[in-house]
Amino acid sequence: MYIQTLMLAAKGLGLDTCPQAAWVPYQEPVIRHLGIPDNESLVSGMSLGWADHAKIESTLVSEREKISEVARFEGF
Ligand SMILES: Cc1cc2nc3c(=O)[nH]c(=O)nc-3n(C[C@H](O)[C@H](O)[C@H](O)COP(=O)(O)O)c2cc1C
User: How would DSSP label each residue in 37-64?
Assistant: First the structure.
């Protein structure tokens, strides 16, 4: 929820994001670089900046379920 809020705030400021947990198994250099204490660990990371829309990876548009498939609105 925290990451989503940060992503929405970034979008509102014209920035792009990409959360990724895939690099967490390789977090040791990040922990060392940022001086993160031994009793803490990373659970996710998030790139923050401006997307390069000329890159092919920026053109991916993932499919979404219809809202009616995942939620039911009553009384609206
Ligand atoms: C907390 C979090 C961690 C994520 N980690 C990864 C990841 O490690 N690898 C990956 O390919 N996508 C990961 N994703 C998904 C991508 O960030 C992104 O949502 C995905 O490329 C699909 O884009 P879409 O959300 O527009 O459908 C993660 C998403 C969240 C919210």
Answer: -TT---S-EEEEE---TTSGGGG-----
- Answer left, alpha or beta for residue 44, where phi above 0 means left and psi between -120 and 50 means alpha: beta
Cα(75) to centroid(ligand 1), Å: 33
List all residues whose CB is within 6 A of at least one atom of ligand 1.
3, 18-22, 44, 62
Q: What is the pLDDT of residue 76?
A: 86
The domain segmentation of the chain, as residue ranges, is 2-70
Q: Per the structure block, which two tokens stand in for 24?
A: 């967490």
How does pLDDT run across 45-73, given as a tens digit for each residue? 999 999 999 999 889 999 999 999 999 99
